[in-house]
User: Fold this.
Amino acid sequence: MESISNLQARRIALAAQGFADRAHATPTLATLQRTLGRTGVLQVDSVNVLQRAHYMPLYSRMGAYDVDLLRRAASSQGRRPRRMVEYWAHVQAFMPVELWPVMQHRMERYRGERGKWGFTADPALEPRILAAVRERGPVTARGLDEEFSRPRLKENWGWNWSDARRVLDYLFLVGDVAIAGRTSQFEVLYDVPERVLPADVLALATPTKAEAHVELVRRAARSHGVGTVRCFADYYRMAVADAKVAVETLVEAGELSAVRVEGWRKPAFLHAEARLPRRIGARALLSPFDPVVWERDRAEALFGFFYRIEIYVPAAKRVHGYYVLPFLLGEAIVARVDLKADRGTGRLLVKGAYAEAGAPSETAEELAAELIRLAGWLGLSAIEVEPRGDLAPALAAASAAAGWRG
Assistant:
């Protein structure tokens, strides 16, 4: 069995995620398509303290780009078919449209389980709301509330959805409706799949459950480059047992090979097409929902980086801050910053900045340069570094030296 060093595994993983791709001076739809081919999915999250989650992995790999590219890729325009659609792929995420039939086995499981998360919708409302979507779509849950929803109760914070929203969410999980887009307020627009998905995608044969598992693990392995069964299972939120069987199938087919990775306790598997660059010259801020770090044990094994998102931690108990982004420099995560876009005042607020052990001397200068680039992309005109964290003084000085307010 081949053995590889942890550094080699890290380079393979970063290359698989697109950090070894040649930058395009002006990112285009082709650039976005290439990037989605690397990440496989783009997690969707409602938190907008800096930028919506699905925009950030594209920025981390493509640099400053026109966010309208994502809207164009996730909609049908003239002869150009939709390339991306939302579904429960990792969690709520954009995925390539061709994965829709691969997810049919998941949709049928949700139908049998009557939904997710321990609650379900009113079955009596389902045919009526589906008929309304077919007649009026694309439509928001709010647009159907007056006709179909009772007054909302105040208890159960976080699940205080209207009746229409609950039914629509169930119909989405089982594939009877699809997400056509979102409003400017980030509300979901629901429609029937035949008006959302390209006809050739809807005409594809539905794979068996075993075939779907193999395809999802194949894609996860391609996006990871190298990983454990648990790494691959997490990518599309599969059962580890199902992922294990799929890995065995792909090993037998020669698409994966077993390898030992220095410092890893569990067996690992290398994708046959994985690249091992001589170096990675990245400089990127990673969203908390970036595939490089979203599986926290993997991030710790690859980078020696212990990371926990603290959005739901009471402010007094947070260690690093509310919305903390790891800073990737070269092939190492060298710092983390708690960021907020204060759009009202045009400032990028650095609420805290922390260096990792062994961070190189140029970390503050490189991070300042990346924050300046990020601020420009977000349309912000100033950077304000608050005095929290061991890296904050040097970062404030570096941003001021670059001509930005520190």
